[in-house]
C-alpha cells in the first residue's frame, strides 16, 4: 500500500506506517507525475485534488484531507472514479475558537471595549461558529447568529439574516465554508454593498476562507474609514493583497486551526477512515502520540473569575505572537514559510485545571479539569 501525504501532516508516519509505505510531498507544488503510484492520498487545503492532479494515477482508493474545508477537492470527480473520500470535520474547531477568543480579547484591550456591551455577529454556526457562540454566551457577550441553512432545518434556530446582522453587530466573525454556487453562496458574502452597511466601528474577523470577503472592496473600505480588522485568511493565498496589512489589527497566515491537537486530530481522523476502508482495527491513537505539554497542571484559587480568564488563556495562546511573526516575515520568507514553520501551540485542554471552585463556564471555553 503506497501512502502519499502532504509533508505538513504531523504524525503521519506514526499513524500510517503500519498500513503501508509513507511518502511525503510538497502540497502546494505537487504534480500528477509524483502521485502515479499512490493508493492513498492525504492532503491539506493547499492541494487542488482534481482530474488533472490524478490524471496519471489509476490505482488510487482513498483521498483524505486533514482539514475541515473541502473546496479544494473535486468530490464529484472522485465519486466518478469510485475513490473514497474523507475530510476531518471538527478536527481544528477548538483551535479556531481559541484564535478568535484571543483576537476578541486583544481588540477589547486595544479599543478599551467591554465585550459584554458589544454584539458579536457569528456568520456560519457549524462546528466552529457553534463553539464560538457557546463560549461567547459563557463570557456574557450578546450574540446575533446567521446561518440560513440551519434556519431552514431547525425551526427554533435564532437566525438573523446577513444584511440585518451587518447593520446591527459591533463585531462580525465569519465561519462559513467557501461556496460559490448553491442557494447560499458565501463567495464575497461581505462585499462593497454590505461593507457600506456596517456600523462605522464594526470589527471584522475572518478565520474561514479569504474569499468570503471581497478583499479589494475591504481595502477600499478600510482606506476610506478604518475599522478593527483581524484576518487569518486571504484571497489568493499565498499571493495575498499585501496593501491590506497596514489596515489589519491582527494579520496571520491561515494558522487559526494550526494547534498541535488540531492538526494531529486531522491526521488521526484520516487514519481511522483509512482503517475502516481497509477493514483493519486502528492500532494507533492520538492520546498516545501527543507530546507532553510544557504546562501540564495549574491550580486556580477560589478567587479566580471572569476577569482572569484572559490571562489564563494567554498562557497557552496569544494571537499577538502570530501577528508579530507575520508582519516580520511575510515579505522575506512568505506566506507558506510562516505556515510550515509554525511554532507549537497547545489547546486549552492540554492544561489540567484544579481548584476548590472551578467555574462551570471554563468548560464552555474548552478548558479541562483534573
Ligand atoms: N483559518 C483556519 O485555519 C480554518 C478555517 N476553517 C474554515 O472554517 C469553515 C467553517 O468550519 P466549520 O465550522 O467546521 O464548518 P461547518 O461545516 O461545521 O459549519 C459551517 C456552517 O456555515 C453555514 N453556512 C454555509 N453557508 C452559509 C452562508 N452563506 N451564510 C451563513 N452560514 C452559512 C453552514 O450551514 C454550517 O452550519 C470551514 O469550512 C473552513 O473553510 C476551518 C478550520 C480552520
Ligand atoms: O481545516 C481547514 O479547513 C483549514 O483551513 C485548516 O486549518 C488549514 O488547513 P491547511 O491549509 O493547513 O491544510
TrEMBL record:
Top-level taxon of origin: Bacteria
Q: Which Pfam families match?
A: 2-Hacid_dh, 2-Hacid_dh_C, DUF3410
Pathway given for this chain reads: Cofactor biosynthesis; pyridoxine 5'-phosphate biosynthesis; pyridoxine 5'-phosphate from D-erythrose 4-phosphate: step 2/5
Q: Which UniProt keywords apply?
A: Cytoplasm, NAD, Oxidoreductase, Pyridoxine biosynthesis
| Domain D-isomer specific 2-hydroxyacid dehydrogenase NAD-binding: start-end pairs | 109-240
Task: Provide the catalytic activity annotation.
Answer: 4-phospho-D-erythronate + NAD(+) = (R)-3-hydroxy-2-oxo-4-phosphooxybutanoate + NADH + H(+)
Q: Which PROSITE patterns match?
A: D_2_HYDROXYACID_DH_1 (PS00065)
Please list the residues that bind substrate. Answer: 45, 67
The coiled-coil regions, if any, are none
**Where is the protein localized?**
Cytoplasm
- GO molecular function terms attached to this record: 4-phosphoerythronate dehydrogenase activity; NAD binding; protein dimerization activity
Which Gene Ontology CC terms are recorded? cytosol
Q: Which residues form the active site?
A: 209, 237, 254
Q: Which Gene3D superfamilies match?
A: 3.30.1370.170, NAD(P)-binding Rossmann-like Domain
The protein's assembly and partners:
Homodimer.
Record function comment: Catalyzes the oxidation of erythronate-4-phosphate to 3-hydroxy-2-oxo-4-phosphonooxybutanoate.
Which family is this sequence assigned to?
A: Belongs to the D-isomer specific 2-hydroxyacid dehydrogenase family. PdxB subfamily.
Name listed for the protein in its UniProt record: Erythronate-4-phosphate dehydrogenase
Q: What is the lineage of its organism?
A: Bacteria, Pseudomonadati, Pseudomonadota, Gammaproteobacteria, Alteromonadales
Q: State which gene encodes it.
A: pdxB
Amino acid at each position: 500500500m503506497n501512502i502519499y501525504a502532504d509533508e505538513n501532516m504531523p504524525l503521519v508516519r506514526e499513524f500510517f506506517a503500519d498500513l503501508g509505505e509513507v511518502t511525503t510531498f510538497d502540497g502546494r507544488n505537487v504534480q500528477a507525475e509524483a502521485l502515479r503510484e499512490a493508493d492513498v492520498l492525504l492532503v491539506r487545503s493547499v492541494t487542488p485534488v482534481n482530474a488533472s492532479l490524478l490524471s496519471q494515477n489509476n490505482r488510487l482508493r482513498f483521498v483524505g484531507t486533514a482539514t475541515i474545508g473541502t473546496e479544494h477537492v473535486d468530490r464529484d470527480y472522485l465519486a466518478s472514479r469510485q475513490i473514497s473520500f474523507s475530510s476531518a470535520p471538527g478536527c481544528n474547531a477548538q483551535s479556531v475558537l481559541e484564535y478568535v477568543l484571543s483576537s476578541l480579547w486583544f481588540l477589547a484591550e486595544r479599543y478599551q471595549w467591554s465585550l459584554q456591551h458589544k454584539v458579536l455577529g457569528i456568520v456560519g454556526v457549524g462546528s466552529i461558529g457553534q463553539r464560538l457562540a457557546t463560549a461567547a454566551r459563557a463570557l456574557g457577550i450578546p450574540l446575533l447568529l446567521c446561518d440560513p441553512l440551519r434556519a431552514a432545518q431547525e425551526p427554533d434556530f435564532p437566525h438573523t439574516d446577513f444584511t440585518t446582522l451587518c447593520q446591527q453587530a459591533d463585531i462580525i466573525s465569519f465561519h462559513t465554508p467557501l461556496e460559490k454556487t448553491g442557494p447560499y453562496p458565501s463567495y464575497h458574502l461581505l462585499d462593497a454593498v454590505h461593507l457600506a452597511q456596517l456600523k462605522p466601528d464594526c470589527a471584522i474577523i475572518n478565520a474561514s476562507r479569504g474569499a468570503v470577503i471581497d478583499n479589494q472592496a475591504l481595502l477600499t473600505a478600510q482606506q476610506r474609514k478604518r475599522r478593527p480588522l483581524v484576518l487569518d485568511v486571504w484571497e489568493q493565498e499565498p499571493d495575498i493583497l499585501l496593501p491590506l496589512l497596514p489596515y489589519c489589527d491582527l494579520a496571520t497566515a491561515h494558522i487559526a486551526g494550526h494547534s498541535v491537537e488540531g492538526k494531529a486530530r486531522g491526521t488521526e481522523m484520516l487514519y481511522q477512515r483509512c482503517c475502516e476502508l481497509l477493514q483493519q482495527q486502528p492500532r494507533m491513537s492520538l492520546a498516545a502520540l501527543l507530546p507532553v505539554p510544557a504546562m501540564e497542571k495549574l491550580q486556580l484559587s477560589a478567587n479566580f473569575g471572569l476577569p482572569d480568564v484572559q490571562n489564563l488563556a494567554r498562557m497557552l495562546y496569544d494571537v499577538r505572537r502570530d501577528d508579530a511573526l507575520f508582519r516580520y516575515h511575510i515579505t522575506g520568507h512568505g506566506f507558506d514559510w510562516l505556515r510550515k514553520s509554525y511554532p507549537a501551540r497547545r489547546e486549552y485542554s492540554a492544561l489540567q485545571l484544579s481548584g476548590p471552585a472551578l467555574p462551570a463556564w471554563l468548560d464552555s471555553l474548552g478548558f479541562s479539569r483534573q
